[in-house]
Each structure stands twice: as structure tokens, then as C-alpha cells.
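Input chain follows. Return C-alpha cells only.
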Amino acid sequence: MSANGITWVGLDAHKKSINVAVLLPGRAEPLCWQEANEETAVRRLARRLIREAPGEVRGCYEAGPLGYALQRELGAQGVVCEVVAPSLIPIRPGERIKTDWRDARKLAELLRAGLLTEVQPPNEADEALRDLCRGRDSVRQDLMRARHRLSKFLLRRGHRYHDTQRHWGVRHMKWLRLLRFEHAAAQAIFDHYLLAIDHLDERLRQVDVHLGAFGAEEPYRQSVAWLRCFRGIDTVTAVSLVAELHDFRRFRSARALMAYLGLVPSEHSSGEQRHQGSITRAGNRHVRRLLVEAAWHHRHRPVPSQPLRKRREGQPADVIAIADRAQERLHARFMRMTHRGIHYNKTVVAMARELVGYLWATLTPREAESAPPATIQS
């Protein structure tokens, strides 16, 4: 069907309401109304759009806290709906008025003009696993904060642990449990801090067990096993990478994946002047952190450890070969850049960017060159 016969719909969706702007074929001004953001109201909206549109209906709304539930509900009713990346929506210079109606109309007009970037929607199983991975990261952050509170509490009272360099291990926790304070109030808050750490530590272990179980099931089993062949990537990191990216084939090249993850340098060039800055930090922040942490392990000599050799048992030889090349190249880059006096942080980020290329080569089949264009995932 020609684009002239399509009805374009912009949805400015909120928790309680949806502002709708409809651009009918041959009509200059949009039809605008508001619907409640409820299941029955969304079904009524879909029926109205199909009834009033002369042909195909295509709608969109911005990615955000509403997730993909609205898209799935409209799709089930026969309305094609896209979720678009809000950070890539064009903004007119000098535009100073923003309302819900303007936003809905703007989305419809930009969708008709083909100026919006669609977010790659995961299926419900992938979304559930991704939520589990992000929940695990939330527990990790809570545990880190709880440990900081306790360590600062002890520092204010002159208690310092010197027996081993590693804190929060078995010996450190045993030392903590033997501490006693003169004042009852200090002992009470110390016990509270210690109980919070024990609780969060157990929650983290339980989530890790669930991630390991889901990572061993289809369709994630093979991808997770291959990623675990790389140094610095074990079960939790591998499952998180697969859950967040879920299909490496949607990226035409490794450079496209690097750009999506925000690991490429920013640039501001004009005329004969070219200026590159720090990395863009666009895209998925959670995956970027995991890759930087994995790249940090490659500062050591490229000799497979015993746990790494065990993870590689039974895996394809070509995957192990790629992982070995990654070890050698990333370690060589670390040595070369540090000898030049480049700061460790910049060096590890450069290593993480290069690691992305090896991961893409591992999980992308040879026919990736004919894959569909890349889309964005929130």
C-alpha cells in the first residue's frame, strides 16, 4: 500500500491517559482526543482507529516507563504500533512550547516523514529475563550501599580491618561478627547494618541461582555458553548481555553495536577542524558497565585460568579461538596504552570497545551482512 493511503497515529502515553493525534490521508489537520490508559479503553481506541481509517493504520509512542504493554495490546487488535527512541526525536530550534497534544501531533508527523527510530521490542520471555538481570543489578547496588554505610560507621569509631586485603570475604565477615560496642545504641545500629548486609547478600545469591538456571535453558543456552569462553565473562555477565541485546544479528557490523552501546568517541567537526571527545555514553548503560568490567580482566597476561578452561570444555574450537585472540589483543592494547601514559580508565574503555567486536563476531553468523537494518533497544 502507498504511504499516501496510511493513517498515521501519534500517542502521547502517560500512566492514566493517552493523548491521540490521527493524521488521515488527504486531511491537513489531525483528529485529536484523549483515552484512558486502561485495557478496555485501549481496545476501544484500536476499534475506532480501524473503523475511521480508510486503510492501514500505523502508530507510535515514546519508549519509557510504560514499556511494551501498550504496543502489544494494540498489535493484538490489529493496529501496527512502534515504540520509538525519545532521545533520537528531532527537536526544532526555538521550540519553547510543549504540551501533550503537541507531542502527540509531532509524533504522528515525524512518523509519517520517516524521521523516528524504532526501538527493538523484546518478546515477553526476553523482557522477563531482562527484568531479572536489572533486578539483580539493583540488589548489587543496594548491597554496595549497605556495605559503605557499615564501613563508614566503623571508620568513625576507629575500627579498621587489616588482616587481609580483601574485604567482605569469609575472614572479614568473621571479624565483623566478633565486634562489640560499649553503648547499646551503637551496638543496635551495628547489628542493623550487619543484618541488612546478610539479607542482601543472600538475595544476590538467590538471583544468581535463578540467572544460572535460565541461562542454561533454550534459547539462551548456546549464546551464554559461548560468551563464557571469554575472559572476564561468567554466567551472570553472559546472561545479562544476552538478555539486554537478545539478538546480535540486528546490528549490521561490530561498529554499529559499539555505537549503540555508547563506546565510540563523540565528535564535533566543522570544515577542516575535527574534534573528538569522550565516549558518547549513549544506549544501554547496564551493558556498557558489564563490558568495561569484563575488559578490566584482560590487563593480566593472556593465560587461561583453571575456571576459564573448565567453562570452555565442550565448546566449539572456533569460539575458543576468537576468545583467545581477544585475550592476546586486549592485553597487548593495555600494555601499549599504559606504557604511553594513558590513564587506566581510558585504556579499559578502549579495550571494552574492542571486546564488543569479538563478541559480535562470536554471536553473529556469517550471513549477518544480509540481516535487516539495526534498530534501537531501550
